[in-house]
């Protein structure tokens, strides 16, 4: 009986080890240990306040998952939504479907010529004017973007933006948190050359 039990334990151990190795080998993760700073004290800039209690809400029920906003020279607000639309809030508060870009528009900013520059999670860096979409960059340094996210534009027209992960796309972003590796990139796009360049900063 003792020999039988030892054999069964050995077989079970080998089976468990084989399954574990198969899972680890086929996993897309290459994780590092996670270390997080302690929670700051609720004082100073972290103290509770009522600064937003009196704000007026706009677009309730009319914009889905707005991620960022940009304001043009006429005071109109643009935001990218989870349904693929760039929506515009007119100065009278009316919400209009401005331009459909598909994908998932995240960061938005007004360009030097009043165009709307967009980081789309799936399509890359976009230049959008009403009813017209131009994909201006999908990769930098030979590495395709996986999750273009936030952006800003300098006075010379250079666009600085982020690829939140070069490994995992928006549908897989929980895996990026689990991996705890610096998969994100700070990038710039030079309109004069039409090139995206990574590794800024």
Plain-language structure description:
This protein has 201 residues and is α+β, with helices and mostly antiparallel strands. The chain has a domain of 133 residues: TolB, C-terminal domain (Neuraminidase, 6 Propeller), CATH 2.120.10. Helix content is 16%, strand content 32%. The protein is built from 2 helices and 14 strands; from the N terminus they run αββββββββββββαββ. A 4-stranded antiparallel β-sheet has the order 1-2-3-4, with no helix packed on it. Strands 5-6-7-8 form a 4-stranded antiparallel β-sheet, with no helix packed on it. The longest helix is centred in the N-terminal third of the chain and has 25 residues. About 4% of the residues have low confidence.
For the record, give the distance between the C-alpha atoms at the N and C termini, rounded to a whole number.
67 Å
Low-pLDDT residue spans: 17-24
Q: How is the quaternary structure best described?
A: single chain
The description of the largest β-sheet is:
4 strands, antiparallel
From the spread of the alpha carbons, the general shape counts as globular
Given helix and strand content, the structural type is alpha+beta
Rg result: 24 Å
Sheet with the most strands: spatial strand order: 1-2-3-4
Strand percentage lies at: 25-35%
How many strands in all? Answer: 14
């Amino acid at each position: 009986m003792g020999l039988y039990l030892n054999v069964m334990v050995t077989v079970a151990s080998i089976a468990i080890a084989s399954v574990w190795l198969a899972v680890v080998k086929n996993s897309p993760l290459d994780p590092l240990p996670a270390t997080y700073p302690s929670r700051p004290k609720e004082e100073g800039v972290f103290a509770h306040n009522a600064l937003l209690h009196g704000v007026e809400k706009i677009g309730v029920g009319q914009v889905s998952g707005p991620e960022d906003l940009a304001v043009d020279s006429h005071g109109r607000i643009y935001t990218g939504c989870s349904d693929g639309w760039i929506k515009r809030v007119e100065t009278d508060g009316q919400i209009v479907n401005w331009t459909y870009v598909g994908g998932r528009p995240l960061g938005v900013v007004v360009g030097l010529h009043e165009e709307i520059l967009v980081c789309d999670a799936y399509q890359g860096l976009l230049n959008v004017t009403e009813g017209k979409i131009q994909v201006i960059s999908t990769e930098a340094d030979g590495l395709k973007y996986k999750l273009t996210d936030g952006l800003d534009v300098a006075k010379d027209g250079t666009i600085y933006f982020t690829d939140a992960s070069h490994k995992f796309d928006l549908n897989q972003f929980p895996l990026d948190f689990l991996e705890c590796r610096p998969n994100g990139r700070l990038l710039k796009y030079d309109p004069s050359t039409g090139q995206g360049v990574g590794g800024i900063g």
